[in-house]
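Notes on consecutive records. When two proteins share a document, each keeps its own sequence and its own token line. Never mix them. Below: protein one.
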Amino acid sequence: MPLIIARSVPEKISKILICTGGETQSLENIRTAGRFLACIPAEIQLLHVMSQLALRLDSPDQDLLDNAESAIARGTREGRHFIQAMEILRKAGIPETITPKLRHGLVIDEVIKELNEGHYDLMVIGSHYHQAKKPLLEILLEDIAGQLIGRASCSVMLV
């Protein structure tokens, strides 16, 4: 069940940032969020943050230079994810005005920068906690949702 943390609540929600992690669970989060957001006539921005460093040796150099449009045009993993996510949102009843955005850097820093630069009324994020099998990994894994909730200046919908 989604949870909304309300802060700086405007008279009308006109701009929404939906954050996506690029994996299968993110598509489920988008499907759930879409059902709730379809009744809100707002501008939708779909954000994915990818690393500023190649995570695999066989990653094309162009991946690190892509914006959302070029990732979609080149059919990269991120581009295909954007296409799937936008299709899910449209099927949920959100109009064609969905703008994909691709940023490169540290997830929390880039999402907060986007929030500040874009002046959003609502941010939608997923929360899927992965319990590590080893205690040391547990310490090293970030609580991204918790940090975003704490640092966001607008209301947050947690899916």
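Protein two starts on the next line and is unrelated to protein one.
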Amino acid sequence: MTEILDLTYDIQNNMMTFDAPWHPPVSVDQIGKLDKVGRETRKISFGTHTGTHIDAPAHFIKNGSTIDILPLERLIGEIQIIDLSFLKNNTKVTREMLQNFKTSKKMLFKFGWGKHWNTSLFFKSHPYFSLDAANYLISQKVELIALDTPSPDDPKSLPRADFRNQSEDSPIHKTFLRHDVILVEYLANLQTLTDYENWSIIALPLKIRGADGSPARVCIYR
């Protein structure tokens, strides 16, 4: 291993989260200080889909696998990186586009979306996968998809309120997770990456029993 690129956003007080009632604000509060109690400690509070994070099937699928039981071999290993940063905002990624690229069990898609982190555009207008593209990746036995966008879905399908009875809610999420394709979202620092060959990924979530997802430390290395 000679190169390591950290793809993880810092978790910090009041950081940006998706604007929905099921995404709580992030707090990191100091409760122990060296000059007071002889040690530094902090209390942290955040949702399971804060910052760079992993979606387990249980996020959308009833009785789906939870984050604590995902096999580590699904989260570590060689990854194929696809540069789609030339796409315009709101572009639909199609099956025909993907057929031009080599696939592997683990795929990372660079959309160049990190430039919008901490702006109102981050959750709007990002490129997204068509249902046919998602089914194509599933047919190619892809088991992990990593993205620098907040979602593989059309941003117009992502609700800001109660959407439980709407079949249009996050259909690409549901398609991938129903087929046990793990999603790694909100990747950072991909703008620094220009050589896409021979990388492997490590994407390790907190081992939260029974959880639908978790913030994760994610890096690629070679």
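For the record: The chain has one domain: 47-221.
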